[in-house]
Amino acid sequence: MGNAVHPERGAALAAALLLVAGCASSPGPPPIATGAACVTCGMSIADPRYAGERRDGDGWRVYDAIECLLRDAPSDAGVWLTDYDTRALHAADSIWVVRGAIPSPMGGGYAAFLDRAAAEDVAETTHGRVDRFAAFRDEAVR
After folding, report:
1. Helix (H) or strand (E) holding 98
2. CB-side exposure of 30: number of CA atoms within 13 Å?
3. Would you call 77 helix, strand, or coil by DSSP?
């Protein structure tokens, strides 16, 4: 029985392969490439700390600044923002947005933070306000 396949091992192997296959495809967006053009204003993305992405059908729309994304996003579904501190992308509903005297690419003063305390600190030093992306989007469409 040296080469016999045991049913238990086969099931364990199949489960492991499914787990690995599930981890291979991420539900999040691809990394934002510096130099890519913003779909709203056409500017090149020079500083990814202010950038974001939005799911559009089977692809992704990239933005150089949160204010560009605010003009183009019908909702916060499928929106991902870059954490200013780590430059990692996160779903918009899990991140805090600050609007203050921040030198964002389009001059709107928006930056996103995964950590609420960091967002509050930046808001205090930039005379800004902290809220969720959806609240700022709702204001932008009025």
Report:
1. strand 96-99
2. 9
3. coil
Give the Cα separation of 88 and 26 in Å (integer): 14
**C-alpha dist (Å) from residue 97 to 22, 46, 100, 137:** 31, 20, 10, 11
In tens digits, what is the pLDDT along the chain, a chain of 142 residues? 555 555 565 555 555 445 444 444 457 899 999 999 999 999 999 999 999 999 999 999 999 999 999 999 888 899 999 999 999 999 999 999 999 999 999 999 999 999 999 999 999 999 999 999 999 998 876 6
The dihedral over CA atoms of 48, 32, 129, 100, expressed in degrees to the nearest 10, equals: 30
Listed by start position, the domains of the chain span: 48-141
Q: Distance (Å, rounded) from C-alpha 33 to C-alpha 56?
A: 17
Q: List Cβ neighbours of 105 (8 Å cut-off, separation of 6 or more).
A: 43, 46, 47, 50, 64, 65
Evaluate if pTM is beyond 0.85: no
Cα–Cα distances in angstroms (integers) from residue 111 to residues 41, 47, 84, 130, in the given order: 18, 11, 6, 10
Total residues found in the chain within this entry? 142
